[in-house]
């Protein structure tokens, strides 16, 4: 008898450079637009025939106008290449696009300032809701990177929830404090400081949080592997 083993085709994945470009490309474009506003704003106005993007105090609008198309292109590339978009990237991008659009429609930067708060709060609520209903969404988010007992995943999930809640609260404190003295159509140092915190401080804090939990993850991953061998 011939032993025929059917194997499902492996899912296409973005390689390291592609993944980095999809996730970080829009952020890099945003920072370029914000911090090179004095050079790029007048160019943008000439292209679209307005006197809006080059105005002092409109750094955030120019950065958003440059970033949103790049974000959509990045999502499209991921969808074409892998026929899927990572759930966390998709949700955070949709929130970004909606709040970015509202920022332009109402010409209110508040919609963008609260974007991290909404994203952190949403994922905290999602993880908590999953745990309360007996599901560990965090395990799915790691996409099989670690194999730990369910109890360990639940503990790690609660840690993530705590971190996300703290991050959401801190963002509210940061943007409300730093932009309290900003006035329309004027450059605001506080806004620039908040952009730096959002773009660099939050990712560094996230990396530090994950690094601090790696001993816990490694401990329970090793315990699970030993249990499988027993």
From TrEMBL:
Keywords: Cell inner membrane, Cell membrane, Membrane, Transmembrane, Transmembrane helix. It is found in: Cell inner membrane. Belongs to the YciB family. It holds the Pfam family IspA. It is a multi-pass membrane protein. Signal peptide: none annotated. InterPro entries: YciB (IPR006008). PANTHER family: INNER MEMBRANE-SPANNING PROTEIN YCIB (PTHR36917:SF1), INTRACELLULAR SEPTATION PROTEIN A-RELATED (PTHR36917). This is Inner membrane-spanning protein YciB. One of its GO terms (cellular component) is plasma membrane. It comes from the Bacteria. Plays a role in cell envelope biogenesis, maintenance of cell envelope integrity and membrane homeostasis. The chain crosses the membrane at residues 20-40, 60-80, 87-106, 118-138, 158-175, 200-218. The keyword Transmembrane helix applies. The keyword Transmembrane helix applies. It comes from Parvularcula marina.
């Amino acid at each position: 008898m011939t032993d025929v083993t059917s194997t499902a085709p492996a899912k296409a994945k973005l390689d390291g450079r592609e993944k980095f470009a999809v996730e970080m490309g829009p952020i890099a474009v945003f920072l370029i637009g914000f911090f090179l506003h004095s050079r790029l704003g007048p160019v943008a106005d000439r292209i679209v025939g307005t006197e809006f993007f080059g105005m002092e105090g409109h750094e955030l609008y120019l950065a958003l106008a440059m970033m949103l198309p790049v974000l959509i292109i990045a999502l499209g590339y991921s969808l074409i290449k892998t026929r899927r978009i990572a759930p966390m990237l998709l949700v955070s991008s949709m929130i970004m696009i909606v709040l970015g659009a509202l920022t332009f429609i109402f010409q209110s930067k508040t919609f963008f300032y609260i974007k991290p708060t909404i994203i952190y709060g949403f994922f905290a609520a999602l993880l908590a809701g999953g745990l309360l209903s007996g599901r560990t969404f965090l395990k799915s988010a790691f996409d099989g990177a670690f194999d730990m007992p369910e109890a360990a995943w639940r503990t790690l999930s609660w840690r993530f929830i705590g971190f996300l809640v703290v991050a959401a609260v801190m963002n509210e404190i940061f943007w409300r404090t730093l932009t309290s003295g900003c006035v329309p159509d004027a450059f605001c140092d506080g806004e620039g400081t908040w952009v730096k915190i959002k773009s660099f401080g939050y990712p560094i804090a996230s990396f530090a949080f994950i690094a601090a939990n790696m001993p816990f993850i490694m401990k329970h991953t090793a315990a699970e592997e030993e249990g499988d061998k027993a």
